[in-house]
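Protein in question kept underneath.
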Amino acid sequence: MKLCRFNDNRVGLVEGDRVRDVTQALDVLPAVRYPLPGYDPLIANLEAVCKRVAALAPQSESLSLSDVKLLSPVANPGKVVAAPVNYQKHLDEVRIDPALHQGNAAHTAAINQIGLFLKATSSVVGPGEGVALRMLDRRNDHEVELAFVIGKTASQVKAAEAMDYVAAYCIGLDITIRGGEDRSFRKSPDSYCVLGPWLVTRDDIPNPGALDLSISVNGQMRQSSNTRYMILDVPQLIEFASSFYTLRPGDIVITGTPEGVSPIVPGDHIAARIEKIGMMELDVRAY
């Protein structure tokens, strides 16, 4: 099932180039009040939501996808966990290009040595909101990544059981300002984490470790690879992350980018694709 969030926080079921407005399915969510939960209620109750969506869909209004504004499919991620240099060829290009490593040894170490990092949740947007670049005197790069959403609380989870904790997948763009500062600082401006175009539930992607992914800018292919080349795969990333953090429903893990990262500037049009998820298009502007 493909679920999107669109316009003024409507919920949609994506069917080809159409979206059915199934916002009424949110009625199955439990009422919440202050203090608000530290997780995303829709993701925590995704199974019930999907059942209600399936029942509502035949009678729901159908809209053209081209006529709606797609938001981040997860409204309230508690955290965004990111995997740096998780493809060997990307690690190799970082090590040989001063524009990428900026003379910082921490930028050229393997993921097992430097660990994961966090992106601010305030950086999360959907493709309909686009990317607003800051620090235009510095290089800003695109990085296309498979993103997955945690479906239930996970702590000290072993890789062998890790897939039980995945709720869904989407495309992630980890937009990056190049420089010598800490990754979390350079990758957390507003709009520097694009998620979308929708969620694809786990049952529709039985093997996230064999997906083609690519990104083009203004029609020119920049990155093209397959998730089989990740150094740490999805179960290993869950084991690694949950050994340090408690992961909660709605937390996002972006799994790293392949080789081919390159600059973007205001006026660019980005098209990112991941097999079994689809294509996510967005525009780049100045902040």
In short: The chain has seven helices and 19 strands. The helical segments are 41-44, 46-56, 88-96, 98-101, 111-114, 183-186, 234-244. The mean pLDDT is 96. Residues 80-286 form a domain with the Fumarylacetoacetate hydrolase; domain 2 fold (CATH 3.90.850.10).
